[in-house]
Known about the structure:
11 strands, 40% helix, Nuclear Transport Factor 2, Chain: A, 7 helices, Glutaredoxin, alpha+beta
Amino acid sequence: MKLSTTVCAAVLALGTLASSLHAQEATIRSNLGKRIQLFKNIDEVRKTSIPGIYEIRVNGAEIYYSDAKGDHIFQGNLILTNDKELRNLTEERINKLTAVKFDKLPFKDAFTIVRGNGQRKLAVFEDPNCGYCKRFERDLQKVDNVTIYMFLYPILGPDSTEKSKAIWCSKDKVTAWQDWMLRDQAAPAAAAMCDVSPLARNVEFGKTYRINGTPTLIFQDGNRVPGAIDAQQIEKHLAAAKG
Length: 243
């Protein structure tokens, strides 16, 4: 009988908690929706690890934080400090929300570089005018037995678009790309006489999945790495992606 009473009390407590959370979410949605245009259509309200602070998600993957009434909001990185190492919880959350399954990437809008047996796979988004990309490309030459799906991602200005068009429309995209990135030999502009809509699709894809910088690497396990990592780090991520 005591056990039954305890179970009933626990169920009631959980029900009360759920009701309270629902009420707080409704309050936040109502107050913010009335006061700020951006929050008229909130995707999700979630509790954070900080008592009284809630995560507000809008436009798919934009993260804000609020108190329980929506009287105060802020945007920034929520950093966990009591772990073995600092963890950027906001970044982790955004990465999860914008994760891309490797086999769902639009490979038709990329060109392929195969080295050795090509068994390991890697997708890279790069802008031809990105200095960090050029440094990354030099390190990438040291990685063997890999298939690289290269997505031209011209986001640094009109000249990036023109260079990307010339490379995409070259008879040998791989050579044109490496001539420019490794040897500063630009593909002839006259070569850009083909369907360049894949470049625009790449940019739109990147906006949707918040690929905000170049280079950005996506490995087979879906792990996304922004920035110019060296060959040793590339090998480490490739090994982890294969399990």
